[in-house]
Predict the structure.
Amino acid sequence: MLETTHATADTFPRLMLQHARTQPLHPAFREKDLGIWQTTNWAQVEQLVRLLACGLALSRKLRGEGGRVWCLMSDGEWNEGSNWESLIFARQQQLANLSVIVDVNGLQGFGTTAEVADLRPLAVKLRDFGWEVDEVDGHDPAAITAAGRRQAGGPHAILAATTKGRGVSFMEGRVEWHYLPLTRELYEQAVGEVQSAGGSSSAATG
């Protein structure tokens, strides 16, 4: 969760690398001064939009504060019913200061999203709930930035299509890297492969 008043563009990736190298599952951290919350347990994950993002966005709206609330989610998290309730709430409250980026890589903890609970086409469903939706290449920073800068008239979702572990030989397209930690050796190998392929901007871990 990110409130844009405090953080810069590279803040969240830098913190994820700092906290995620040796921790399995979902690394947890909070950088209060930067307006960032990274949740860890399953109960928190399913409440990302409803309790945190919607609450922060509504609070800022009621207090007349500027800025935008960003929530980064996976496609698998839309298995949780509370997130669909949040779509209704955000639309009803006209939370135009709320944007959700969904990492659409087609993999989740127990298999592909199509096998576990197929919600395709997700964009159509979100639009049916009254959200504005952009679909972009999740490996194209310029496309994500352009979609994020668009002035939406209501709550806004960016569906970023990615390949999990792109550019890393032992990780790309592998479901087990949803939760495995990196050893120092694997981390250095991954960084080397990404850099050899043309720099960190051309690959993402999904």
Notes: Confidence is low (pLDDT under 50) at residues 4-13, 19-24, 200-206. The longest strand covers residues 98-104.
